[in-house]
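Re: the pair you flagged

First of the two:
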Amino acid sequence: MFQLTVSVDDAKADWLYSVEDVMKNKLNSCSAVSAVSHVGRRIYCVFACEPSEKTSMLSALKEGLIEMYAVFIKFDYIKRNLFLELPQLRYEILLRTLVAFDRENERKMLNKIVRVEDGMSLDGYFNFRLGELKERWLEICKLTKSNGMYLYDDETYNELLRFLISAVNPKINKLTVHETDGKYSLTGALKSGELNLSACDGVQLMYYLIDLAPLELVIDGGITNVELFRRLVGIFDAKTSDARKNKTK
């Protein structure tokens, strides 16, 4: 049996929990198991597999940890360093867009930096190995704050997010959004198969779109929420699938 242990300060336990589902799926694919224990002020997570699955497990762990640093920890870091008195939803959408910004290059950097090994300290890596990334994230915060005055106007806010998302490598080429009774569904073709997300609200819809960063967004019919409709057009350059005008409340 091959095994290794990683640890993190218990104050940062949510780092591990943030990728729990991702890790579980990846570990299942190589028949690996994991167990968590608390010793003092640290949380230890032991991963184990058969020797024949060692390479697969190490690869799965690395992918999961890169996801943790690139998404959850980046979100938390930017949130702690970006102070803007924006309406909550506008602020959350901005944060998620900043996390998605330049994600491909950051993942390449993390792929070179992260080395999964026994005794690895997740917070130690963050404190001492991710200096270049943290500098980039701080620069993003500074640039955003210096343009903060433009974030209160809908048009310039949408333009900024549109620019940021244009630098995000799309996960899908074309998406179609359809509204039914105030809920939204998304359909499209991924490389690995069909995407079909349904019954999400307007906030969840925006989060999905920021993550997927489609090259083309089509509105099937209309969107009753005028503010949401304007965001879809202003940020994602959404087009309607027919000549009908957008419906309003």
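Second of the two:
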Amino acid sequence: MTRHSMRLISTVIGVSLTLGLVGCDYWPPALQAEIEQLRAEAQTLAIEKTQLQAQVIDLSKTKQELQGQVDELSRINREKTGIITGLQNHLDAARARALKAKAPKTPLHKTPAKPTVKAAAKPASKNTAKASVNKKPAPIR
């Protein structure tokens, strides 16, 4: 029996090795369904990845366009700020010239004002008398 059992064991091992090397084409239906589901998911994910990459490219282009617009608006803003500053300086200079033009021109040599004797000798009129009567006395401290 030992020879017979040794022969049986060697045959089983040989068949097992042969099947192991050749491979088995039998896939259970549940395993096949799972494999198909995974393939479908992988395909769906590949499509989504492609769509997301396209969106990233579109967003990058939009970002570049908007950055260009921001740069252009910043440049225009600087130009307008320079123009406004120049106009404010021009306005200040024009105001200064206007104030100089409005100021009464004084002669180079001032003559001292002569006190008039008539003004001091004039009696107080009725209006000035009323004004002095209406004045309030200084508060007491």
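Residues 29-102 form the longest helix (74 residues).

-B.
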